[in-house]
Amino acid sequence: MSKQIHLAAHFPGVNNTTVWSDPRSGSHIEFDSFAHFARTAERAKFDFLFLAEGLRLREQRGHIHDLDVVGRPDTFTVLAALAGVTSRLGLAGTINSTFNEPYEVARQFATLDHLSAGRAAWNVVTSWDAFTGENFRRGGFLAESDRYERARAFLDTSLELFGSWHGDEIVADKESGVFLTDARAGWFKHQDAHFDIEGQFTVPRSPQGRPVILQAGDSGQGREFAASHADAIFSRHSTYDAGRDFYTDVKGRLARHGRRPEDLLILPAATFVLGDTEAEAAEIAHEVRLAQVSGPTAITFAEHVWNRDLSAYDPDGPLPAVDPLDGEHTVARGRASVRMFGDRLATANEWRERAAARNLSLREVVVEVTARQSFVGTPGEVASEINRFVQDDAADGFVLVPHITPGGLDEFAGKVVPLLQERGVFRAEYTGETLREHLGLAARR
Q1: pTM of the model
Q2: Lowest mean pLDDT among 249-263, 384-398, 430-444
Q3: Which of 36, 165, 284, 289 could lock onto 406 through a cystine, CB 3.0 to 4.6 A?
Q4: Which residues form the Luciferase-like domain (predicted)?
Q5: Are 216 and 125 in contact (CB under 8 A)?
Q6: According to CATH, where is 3.20.20.30 located in the chain?
Q7: Which residues contact 202 (CB under 8 A, 6 or more apart)?
């Protein structure tokens, strides 16, 4: 029997995949954009909508990066509003465990799960940089091991809060109109190296018991954290071979945590470009990449490697002849992509070899090394590839990231989803009410 494909949709806002300058691109902060995107995903019977979190605007050489010019709205506010314009679509938000506090986050997610009748999901992430911490009273930098230790304690504490209401603690006396409440309802006490809290949790047990837990870390500690705690992983391994390796590795970690392979879904982020022919799709994909990597964007990425001010260089000219600077990265503070390149000199030399072999400009090199189109082709070809990935255990489904907001999901919903439904590998109608049911996960009670 064929595996069923899981699909989610990521509202990208303005980031490295977004062609925000395209005339078809609408607002990335007005509610109509979020509502359009969510309604499209629900009409296509997607599992959930996914929002990222931005706790600080990104900077480059002391200036706000152009990808953050529209701002970064609050995740909970947007998801709560979307609960009122959707009825089945799951609502997932990325909320940081490094700078937030368990009581507040648990209260917000429990409330969202009530407001949405059981459709909330939490993507638990850590933050690696002191740059973001400057926005918070605690501030500071946490090493990777400390970040994941705090994340585990944060999630464990939150799960205690979600589970602090037991059975029927609240009984309504209809004659007197008085609610009689068990004095222990919602009571919690948690002490560890990170948190020392005690009191009454204010939100009764929600429809799912707790939100679906997503995780996006890719390090060894991140994978182990997901294997022990998460319901689904938002993975970056969207190519076939890398996807199969990641899938095998993470699923293989589950048994030592007393879990089964079906208890954790692997959902890589994936972009797509559709065309009437394979050649047309490839041409569109190339134009999209050029639009995603403007001249200034190419210089920005190069500065992440060189750790130098490269603003005087021509992005359509040769790569810098100077080598990257060693030491603390001061040019691209707070940019996660800095970590992608590892050894700066090795990366610069690899870029130079690529440019020399094919006479590529700096911008053309960046276009190649940051390529993000996962699926390019006709609707039939894309449907076949997505199905191949899932049936061959390279993924359990995908979190789709369109390059146009908010209408970029429309074509996929109208042309690819029906083909998956015809194959019998994707639902034609929702059969459950909660996100946990959509994902085929066991109830958490």
Answers
A1: 0.87
A2: 430-444
A3: 36
A4: 22-391
A5: yes
A6: 6-276+373-438
A7: 107, 186
What secondary structure, in 3-state letters, does the chain show?
CCCCCEEEEEECCCCCCCCCCCCCCCCCCCHHHHHHHHHHHHHCCCCEEEECCCCCCCEECCEECHHHCCCCCCHHHHHHHHHCCCCCCEEEEEEECCCCCHHHHHHHHHHHHHHCCCCEEEEEECCCCHHHHCCCCCCCCCCHHHHHHHHHHHHHHHHHHHCCCCCCCEEEECCCCEEEECCCCCEEEEECCCCEEEEECCCCCCCCCCCEEEECCCCHHHHHHHHHHCCEEEECCCCHHHHHHHHHHHHHCCHHHCCCHHHCEEEEEECEEECCCHHHHHHHHHHHHHHHCCHHHHHHHHHHHHCCCCCCCCCCCCCCCCCCCCCCCCCCCCCHHHHHHCCHHHHHHHHHHHHHHHCCCHHHHHHHHCCCCCEEECHHHHHHHHHHHHHCCCCCEEEECCCCCCHHHHHHHHHCHHHHHHCCCCCCCCCCCCHHHHCCCCCCC
pLDDT digits over 20-42, tens only?
888 898 888 899 999 999 999 99
**Structure-block tokens of residue 325:** 């600077």
- Torsion angles phi and psi, residue 314, rounded to 5: -85, 120
The number of residues in the chain equals: 445
Q: Is 86 helix (H, G, I), strand (E, B) or coil?
A: coil
Q: Is residue 188 a contact partner of residue 161, using CB atoms and an 8 Å limit?
A: yes
Please, is 414 exposed, middle or buried when counting C-beta atoms within 10 Å of its C-beta (0-12, 13-18, 19+)? middle
CATH of domain 6-276+373-438: 3.20.20.30
Buried b (16+ CB within 10 A) or exposed e, 118-148: bbbbbbbbbbbbebbbeeeeeeeebeeeebb
First to last CA, the chain: 30
Q: Beta strands 120-125 and 397-400: pairing type? A: unpaired
Tokens matching residue 298: 């190419």
The whole-number pLDDT of residue 233 equals 95
φ/ψ (deg, to 5) at 50? -125, 130
pLDDT confidence of 297, banded at 50, 70, 90?
A: confident
